[in-house]
Amino acid sequence: CHTSGMLTPNGKEYAQKIPREELTHLILKLLQAWKEPLSHFNQHIENHQELPDDSLSKAKQISNMVHELKTGVEKVTEKMQSMGIISNSLNGMASSEGTSLSISNEANMMSDSDFIHCFRRDSNKVQSYLKILKCRIMPENSC
After folding, report:
1. In 83-111, which residue ranges form alpha helices assigned H by DSSP?
2. Rounded CA separation 26/38 (Å)
3. Using CA atoms, how far apart are residues 130 and 143, in angstroms rounded to an integer?
4. CA distance linking residue 36 with residue 63, whole number of Å
5. For residue 30, what pLDDT is reported?
6. Which GO terms describe its biological process (predicted)?
7. How many Cβ atoms are within 10 Å of 86's Cβ, its own excluded?
8. Least confident of 23-32, 49-58, 121-130
9. 135: buried, middle or exposed (CB in 10 Å: 19+, 13-18, 0-12)?
10. How many CB atoms lie within 10 A of CB 141?
C-alpha cells in the first residue's frame, strides 16, 4: 500500500492516546494521500470497456466522497481551531504533506484487488479515528 510508510497507531487503544491535533492531522493526511491514487484508479477502470457503467459510476462516487470527507474534516478542523479545542498548527499541513505520498510506480503496479484492499484498510482507519475524535470533542455521546 502506498500509505504503508505513514506512521499510524496499531489498534484503537494506541489511537486513543494520540492528542486531538495529531489525530486530526493524521486523518487529513490519509484522506489527502488517496486523492491522486483514486484519480489514477478511475482513469484505469475507464479504460476497461468491459466493465459495466455502474462500476465506473461507483468508482467516481468513491473519489467524490473522499474529497467531500476531506473538505468536511477541514471545516471541522477550522471550527475546532476557532473554538480553541486545537491549536492553529494544522494550517496547510495536510495538503503539503499528503502530496509527498503521491502515487508511486509501486502503487501503479498494484492489482485492482490490492488497491481496493489498501483503500478499505485506510478507510477503516479514518472511520475509527473520526469516531475517537468525535468522542473526545463531544463526550456526551456516550462513547
Report:
1. 93-98, 105-109
2. 18
3. 12
4. 10
5. 92
6. positive regulation of receptor signaling pathway via JAK-STAT; response to nutrient levels
7. 20
8. 49-58
9. middle
10. 9
Rounded distance between C-alpha atoms, residue 47 and residue 30, angstroms: 27
Q: Which of 136, 129, 114, 98 is nearest to 15 (CA)?
A: 129
| Count of positions (residues) in the chain | 143
The cell for 28 is 487529513
Q: Tell me how far CA of residue 19 lies from CA of 13, 16, 82, 136, in angstroms.
A: 13, 8, 18, 10
Q: Is the dihedral of CA 121, 127, 129, 132 positive or negative?
A: negative
C-alpha dihedral (125, 135, 89, 74), degrees to nearest 10 = 70
Yes or no: say if 80 and 18 are a contact pair by the CB < 8 Å rule: no
Cβ–Cβ < 8 Å for 28, 73: yes
Note whether 12 and 128 are within 8 A (CB).
yes
- Among candidates 23, 21, 1, which has minimal Cα distance to 132? 23
Distance CA 6, CA 33 (A): 10
Cα–Cα dist 140/100, whole Å: 38
Which pLDDT value is given to residue 99? 44
Query: How far is residue 107 CA from its own chain's centroid?
Result: 16
